[in-house]
Model the fold of this input.
Amino acid sequence: MRREDLYAMIHWRRSVDPLYQPFDFPDQSRAEHERWFTWRSQDPSRRLFTVENEDGQVIASLTLREIDGQGSARLGITVGADFVSQGYGSEALRVFLDYYFGQMGFARLVLDVASTNLRAVRTYHALGFRQIGEHYRPAGHASYRILQQDPRYRHLRSCFRRLGASTQVRFYDMALTREEWLAHRQREPQP
Done:
């Protein structure tokens, strides 16, 4: 990721659907984004990547954190609202996973994903990730209240739990090893 990529991400449109608003690129001042970029790009336990589409537009970012030598790392991905549901995330992850397990030489990749983010959960399963656990986090984003109250999202109510006076949202812990990825790639139909 380059600094100018960050400026492109700052201008991404916000998600309209409350289901995906918690995963938008953070709405912060340019100075806050600058500090974030400087801090993250200097942290040896992190690596930042940018995804561009065929027109050279910055459409997503990939982050590795908690890098443990070449053993493992934790993945984060953010796709701009105008670029979701077009297959870019799946394609970017396929290319990245080949790079991660190939040239970078990592043995395992882990991630956590909100159980409400059904699109991401499906994508990770389709790429061969397996669920290895789950945990709960505070449901502090305003859109989580909408998901719990709006009848259109009734099917997601089991993703939340009350703990005292607070509400929490369930996250799935997922993992993929190099061997699992290579086996998955062997089974995938070739274009």
User: Anything to note?
Assistant: The chain is about 30% helix and 30% strand. Residues 65 and 168 are 24 Å apart (CA to CA). The longest strand covers residues 166-177. The two ends are 29 Å apart (CA to CA).
